Amino acid sequence: MRKMRLTVLTGVVVVFLFSVVTPIQAGPPKTGDGEFTYFGTGAEARTAGCNLFLTITEIAEWTGIFTGWSTDKGKAVGHCNGDWSVNEIMTFDVVEVDGKIGGLILSIVGSRPAGVTDWYGHWVILKGTGDLANLRGQGNWYGPGAPDPFSPGLIEYDGKYHFEPN
Questions:
Q1: Per-position pLDDT tens, the chain of length 166
Q2: Residue 93: which domain range?
Q3: How far apart are alpha carbons 130 and 75 in whole angstroms?
Q4: Is residue 1 a part of any domain in this protein?
Q5: Residue 21 included in any domain
Q6: How many domains are there within the chain?
Q7: pTM for the predicted model, two decimal places
């Protein structure tokens, strides 16, 4: 009898929880695009064999999905075969996404093969703060970039993003 009461009580609790608690899910991702223009603010170079390693700092003005300015730090490598690769962290102290404002940290990785004029790569949101704390997203970037580390470079980007439920 005691076992039966416990089973009935457990069943009532489960039914109650399923009827009261409804799962919250993120909506479908939004798609968007934009561009950013970056300006080199510093670079340190070193070589190893025929490879060139640059530690770079930049600022960038963004429009589109992300509207604001970022401070960027990373590495670019000119490889012996003429290929280039880049890996940077882009930090927005204040940025707007879909009318919401907060901080944001993006990671970008990319490359430019030898003999090709355009860069291409991938971006991903690492962290958001303020109204952007629950923002998730990733996408692609591409464009001619800058002709040298201290000239402005233009990059286009696109991707998908969404806000996770609180």
A1: 555 554 544 554 444 444 444 455 667 899 999 999 999 999 899 999 999 999 999 999 999 999 999 999 999 999 999 999 999 999 999 999 999 999 999 999 999 999 999 999 999 999 999 999 999 999 999 999 988 767 899 999 999 999 998 7
A2: 28-163
A3: 28
A4: no
A5: no
A6: 1
A7: 0.82
